[in-house]
Amino acid sequence: MTSSETTAEGFVAILKALSKADQDAVLARIACDEEFGQDLIDLATIEARKDEPERPFREYLEQKRGQ
């Protein structure tokens, strides 16, 4: 396990130890933070699209130009 993964596990353990109200408050604060909120959106998008087939970036650009 990497140092980052160990740190993440520690934070998750601490979060789980909090009451539901405190968990909600922490998560809401993270989501409302501009930078963290965008990171959450990015991570959720990556997770949702991870099984989509890959394609070359040039192909994507050509498709966007055609729209």
Question: Can you lay out the helices and strands and say which pair or pack?
Answer:
Elements: H1 3-17, H2 20-32, H3 34-49, H4 57-66
Provide a descriptive summary of the structure in words.
By secondary structure, this protein is mostly helical. The chain has 4 helices and no strands. It has helices at 3-17, 20-32, 34-49, 57-66. It is elongated and about 50 Å long.
Query: Roughly what is the average pLDDT, rounded to an integer?
Result: 94
Residue runs with pLDDT of under 50 for 5 or more positions = none
What's the story with the biggest beta sheet? Answer: none
> Strand share of the residues?
under 5%
Any idea what the shape is?
elongated
Please count the helical segments. 4
From the N-terminal CA to the C-terminal CA, the straight-line distance is 45 Å
Helix content range: over 70%
Strand/helix succession:
HHHH
What does the radius of gyration come to?
Answer: 18 Å
Helix vs. strand class? mainly alpha
Total strand segments: 0
